[in-house]
Amino acid sequence: MSNPFFKFAGVSLLASMASFNVMAASSNDFVDAATEAGIAEVVTSNLAMEKSQDAGIKTFAQQMVTDHTKANQKLGDIARSLDISVPDDAALTDKVKKMILEWRDESFDKSYVNNQVDAHEKAVELFRKEAASSDKAELKAFASDALPTLEHHLEQAKALQAKHGK
Predict the structure, then answer these.
(1) Contact, 67 vs 45, CB < 8 A?
(2) What CA–CA distance (Å, rounded) separates 33 from 119?
(3) Residue 135's domain is classified under what CATH number?
(4) What is the secondary structure of 122-147 as a DSSP string?
(5) What is the C-alpha to C-alpha distance for residues 111 and 137, in angstroms, rounded to an integer?
(6) Contacts of 125 (CB under 8 A, 6+ apart)
(7) Which domain holds residue 151?
(8) Is residue 22 within 8 Å of residue 56, measured between CB atoms?
(9) pLDDT digits (tens, 9 = 90+) for 83-118
(10) CA 130, CA 75: separation in Å to the nearest integer?
């Protein structure tokens, strides 16, 4: 039987694409990476609300769905106003869902919180870079505004990881 953590790593990779796209540093790359990571957050967190038995994880997951849905909508609006294409939500959602079909329940909480720490570390890095160096004022402001929330998510994820992860 294969290790469910490695299957979860596929989602972590999707949520962490931001770290690879940071190098190119274009507005389109930021929009793509942030959208991909945000969609992965929503999909995995919806699953956490269904599968986890831990109240703390469920509360955190609900916050991730709410915050990342709102951020994804705002980023999409900004991108469209700048004539930057936005990745297809449905295609990305399907990609994430296919990767998580084989998770085993007994390791779900551990895999989820470890992924949340990894994904949020990379998102903070991506948003810090965009806030510091974007050539588009709207994206720079979006990244600056979102950064404190992402940093707070990272702190919360690390607290959950101390209890359930590693």
Answers:
(1) no
(2) 11
(3) 1.20.1260.10
(4) HHHHHHHHHHHH-SSHHHHHHHHHHH
(5) 37
(6) 18, 19, 22
(7) 4-164
(8) no
(9) 998 887 777 777 777 666 655 555 788 888 988 999
(10) 13
Counted domains in the chain:
1
CB < 8 Å & 24+ apart, contacts of 27-31? 27/82, 27/84, 27/134, 27/135, 27/136, 27/139, 28/84, 28/85, 30/126, 30/130, 30/134, 30/139, 30/143, 31/75, 31/79, 31/84, 31/85, 31/86, 31/139
> Which of 2-11, 41-50, 141-150 has the weakest average pLDDT?
2-11
- Answer yes or no: pTM beyond 0.90: no
Look-up of token digits 């967190």: 45
Percent of the chain with pLDDT over 90: 51
For the chain, give the number of residues. Answer: 166
Contact 57, 109 (CB under 8 A): yes
Euclidean distance between the first and the last CA atom of the chain, given in angstroms as a whole number:
21
pLDDT tens track for 48-77:
999 898 999 999 999 999 999 999 999 999
Q: What is the DSSP letter of 107?
A: G
Q: Could you tell me which of 38, 47, 19 has the C-alpha nearest to residue 104?
A: 47
